[in-house]
UniProtKB/TrEMBL annotation:
Membrane keyword on record: yes
Pfam family of the protein (one): DnaJ
Annotated InterPro entries: DnaJ_domain, DnaJ_domain_CS, DNJB2/6-like, J_dom_sf
Positions of the J domain: 3-69
Protein name: J domain-containing protein
Keyword Transmembrane: yes
The entry's keywords: Chaperone, Membrane, Transmembrane, Transmembrane helix
CDD domains in the record: DnaJ
Single GO term (MF): Hsp70 protein binding
């Protein structure tokens, strides 16, 4: 069973700042570009870390995960499918959550961080920091 809290090395009651800090530390440590000698393990760990961050950093997903585990995220809060589940698919009770690409999660997190740093520098110094606001894909 997946434990996103253990994956990010944070307690269950961790706040969003603690989750972001843990993700930043672990994502940089396990990013495949920094682990050429152990690419397969690094890629696996990086995906696990990004998936955990994606869930725990979103209040709704985190609540669903806390109640039902990873299966609850995939099945929209249902523990398992029954023969009657198809009767409810038209009412939006089908699949609740799909996982995004790990590189997208990483890029989104660090671009937002860089933009905040640029804004802080601009505010503190009065100097406008110019450059690309998007990372090319």
């Amino acid at each position: 069973m997946v434990d996103y809290y253990k994956t990010l090395e944070v307690p269950r009651g961790a706040n969003i700042a603690e989750i972001k800090k843990a993700y930043r530390k672990l994502a940089l440590k396990w990013h495949p570009d920094k682990n050429h000698d152990n690419m397969e393990d690094a890629t696996k760990r990086f995906k696990e870390i990004s998936e955990a961050y994606e869930v725990l950093s979103d209040e709704k997903k985190r609540h669903m995960y806390d109640q039902y585990g990873k299966e609850g995220l995939i099945n929209g809060g249902h523990r398992s499918r029954s023969r009657h589940d198809d009767d409810f698919d038209g009412f939006g009770f089908g699949t609740f959550f799909t996982f995004r690409d790990t590189e997208d999660v990483f890029r989104e997190f660090f671009v937002a961080l860089l933009l905040l740093i640029s804004l802080a520098i601009s505010t503190a110094t009065g100097i406008t920091v110019r450059g690309e606001t998007e990372i090319p894909t």
